[in-house]
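Hi R.,

As promised, here are both runs. First protein below:
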Amino acid sequence: NFPRTVDTNGRPTFTGPAPANSNVVYRQLIPNYIPQEGIFFVAGSRFTPAQPDENVTGDAKLAVGENHYAYVPGLRETSNQRFPLVAGGFATAATGTYSTNPEVVGGVWGGSRAVVIRVDQSGALETTTIAGTGATATATVEANTGGAAPANIFVPASWTPNPMPEIAVNPQT
């Protein structure tokens, strides 16, 4: 299983409620698996307005403003290998949508692209599909999810016949 959250002692847990945000999960990787916070930074992202301070101790580890990436909880190594596990932070995590406005969270790259890492550990800079115009335009990553037409890969029910277990959680803001 991929971790869900941490217990009161800071140890990874694999059951229980979904994490409040992706920072909770990614903190578990620092410093034992990833030595610094910089890997979670994306220039131009409103989730990461400044370079991380690289303080990897206690509550300062991967604090607000030091992580750009969302996380999909509830997945396992045996889950559908095409399910997304990690992605650029969303404008709206519950619907897996990005904004086309680069001045807001979830709008990095103007909604034209999104980083997606899947359960099989492959990663890609995906081209998005933009719907609407102006301030209300949104962008989604669409692919073959088992239905008749490509669908938003971050909407659990779009995966047929076996849906993805949960929606993604955004970085802490």
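And here is the second one, sequence first, then its structure tokens:
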Amino acid sequence: MWIVKLGGSLAMETQLVSWLQMLATHGAGRVAVVPGGATFANAVRGAQAHWCFDDLAAHNMAVLAMAQTALMLHALEPRLVIASSDAQIRQALHAGRTALWMPLDMLRDAPDTLTTWEVTSDSLALWLAQRLHAERLVVVKSCRIDTRLTLAQQGAAGVLDARFAEWSQGAAFPIDLVQRDEVGRVRDALLGLAVPVTAGAAPMPMAATAESAAAHASDVEPVKAKTGAASSIAHGRRRAGPSGRLRTPRS
């Protein structure tokens, strides 16, 4: 099973439909999609800043923001199967479909490690991947990926949330950060094909590890993963850890 997190900022990008169509077609029976909070989560942040209510309420509202994004993604690509539990996710995959996570089980009655803005939908995707014993986690970002940065540096830069690097320390699966224009590479990886080479450029490995991967905002363009710890979409290995919840990294 692959977990593919679609960054909330993709919600307003033209590439979104291409990602959904590809995942519904080539991820069938294999992929569970995790939605970001998109503009719905931004509304939660604005409301909390204005009214100063607690993080527990903000967390639950942000989870519902992810749920609203899920409903939008399903409307755009009805072949995706909405699934709100582990059992429903597995059932969708066993039926040869692509699952779309509706994270209602992340709602909380009392504060815990999830109910903080230090955790976003990125870490929730990591948390889900660990819980489901996924074989790979792919995090799709609208911002440019700079593979020289560590996951901790990405968190400091606001690309990933503050907990992601810490919770990524024990995963038995690769963690790949990809840019919004790399739908073709993810498709080829799902099909088991060689990662394509852009004319005149170096091969484009798509993995991010705790020692290698990241993103900067601005234009999106292919980049080559660096450092000995970086893994390719075909060969990489990374580790992930417990818990997760919502803040606002650059998607």
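A quick note on the second one: Strands lie at 2-6, 31-35, 81-83, 99-101, 136-141, 175-179. Let me know what you think.

Best,
J.
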